[in-house]
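Revision sheet: structure tokens.
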Amino acid sequence: MIGTRGSGPLCFFQKIAAAAIIPALFLTPAVSSAAPQEASTFIKDVVPNYRTDEIPVIRSDVALFDFIPEGKTEQIKLTGIYPERSFRFYSPKDEIISKVTVTLKYTPSPSLIPQQSQLNIFLNGQIQKSLPITKEQLGNAVTQTVELNTKNIEESNRMTIEFVGVYTNNCGNIANPSLWLTIDDSSYMSFNTQKLRLANDLSLMPAPFANNLSPNATTLPVVFNGNPSPALKKASGIFASWIGTKTEWRGAEFPVYIKEVPQAQNFVVFATNDSRPEFLKNLPAFTGPFVTVVDAPNSLYAKVLVIGGKDEAEVLTAAEWLAVNSQVLTGSSAEVKDFKPLPNREAYDAPNWIPTNDKVTFEKIAKYRGQLRSSGLHPAPISLEVRLPPDLYMVNKSNVDLDLRYRYTKPTSGEAAQMRFLLNEQLVESFELDPKKNSSSFTSRFSLLNGLANMWNDTSVPTGLLGADNLMQFDFQYGLAVPGGSVENCKSVALIPSQVEIDPTSTIDFSGFYHFAKLPNLNLFTVSGFPFTKYADLSETGVVLAKDAPAAVLTTYLNTMARLAAQTGYPATKLTVVETIDKGALKDKDILVFGENSRILDGIDKEDAGVAIDKIKQGIEKSLTKAVSDDKNMESVVAEDAGIAAIVQYQSPFSDDRSVVAVLGDGQDGSFLINKRLMIPGDLKLIDGSVAVFKTNATPTSYNIGPTYYTGSLPWHQRVWYSMLDQPVLLVLFTLVCALLFAGGIYYLMHSLIRYRSRRHK
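Predicted:
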């Protein structure tokens, strides 16, 4: 029963919760078809509905600078020209913020006029409080606490601090250096939060199971009633990858529970009629692939996502259906009928990757509305993320064509203004904004690397700056000259914000490149998931997991699936999962192995894999406690018993252009370590070579050992050129030979021409 006690703003949310829950108890589940009627009885009667005010209040203090959208900084200085700073915080659907305060620690300039100078605090555009700067505060550290109005709180919130500084009553200048106020990094925000019991409604997905709003990572436990079969392992991998597409760069972790249930936390269960956790014993028998949301046991608010079926094959069908049909979910449950799996995807067609077979408009690259616009006295740079296939071979072309169109507010005559184009934070080119131009659309270009004159309607991006993950920025800079004055001749200045925009019809063209890569190269795997992400649905990926794989290894597997899907933007619906080495199942596939040691790798040893790789395998098999050495490239890999993990890549024994990547941890500590690293993309960008070793409290170490191999294809002339890139002496000799042959040809031609003319004169 829903309680009605309480007072203040909390009662409002209680009434909403009650209104949302009670109708949901009687909903007839209908997505693909109606669920069994007994399911609503289970949801309604078996687990009681608790009052929201019985859920305890959680108090948390968070550093204010953690909420800066642009990233944490050491200090904030507000001035007359930069008088505002914004901070973002979030309120999930399953949480109520009953009280929030901000404690500001700041120092105002001693030159300010008291009372006329002030700090204004806004929440989502609504004024919360104005803090006058008093005489006693000038030049001193000040601490002030402001309580924000919870009625103004939304899912995504922006708190803005505005500095109004006055230093003179006559003819002030906003550019005066005495106008300043600094905010210290010890400032913080305090939250009183309560978990909210949501209705059992699939339309809320991915909430409350995944975070796709705030920058925080998602932790979602996965429950099995026993050691999962290959079908359940695949089903859980598909589900984890689907969550990865929702959490994107935020990261996701999936602690695995076998015959256990997590406490007071949202989680997901994979169940059949014959194998289900005890708390689901009253859930009606599945009559087909089934997805439902129920209340979690031993919790006042948590939810359980149940993915079930009569048998494991139907559980797999339900997981695949959920991954590709989540946008049409409604009601508390859905029974899947007549589901037809989608066909395999083509190579390099990942939704998050830029197509490389034709021009692409900026409209397709932009992820949200308004991304191509910016405004303000100093407009923030317009940023676009450009993800490319990691095996794009860029030696055969020196540039990428960029057809750029943009509009901007006409700069004031006599003041400098320019647009800077940056690629991965490196300046590519900049040019002046013509004050005679109006704000209509036009096209321009940057200089080519070869120094040729500019050509209309064309821009070139140097490929040497490009990688798999790229950031293009268009930074419009306006000079700001604020004229001064005197008491007798005071000049008022009204600053007009500038508006800039990149035309959505601008294009970038990556066509004409080949796909070719030298392996092993773990950097391609850790940054972009290559070679597995070549096919976004992982249709040509085989995963090897031992039959009795422990929970920690299963967690590593699920975390990796989420990370791969976050790169591609598509769930791994065509994944192949096996428990033993099966040449028939793994032939013509890239193989991804998860284990605690190298025992699982023994069946795929390759005779010519190299002595160094064999030593790595032996070292992992012995819990990575012995030193592993290679005369040329490495002296010591491991010499301690602390948490250790490794990633190894080498050529598949079943296909010459395929890879084996093994993600290995040494027991619980090693698995914890590798999973922690998988949550920190920045650490993984440091990895390359064929072997990467992770140790507690240490930077990952990479080694380039073992034989090399290639994936993709190049024309013969490009292959010859590529083979010479690693042989500088041979390249010089080849260049000299070509020069001699060319000079000889010219000499012979000129000599023949002279002889011909001599004969004619005779």
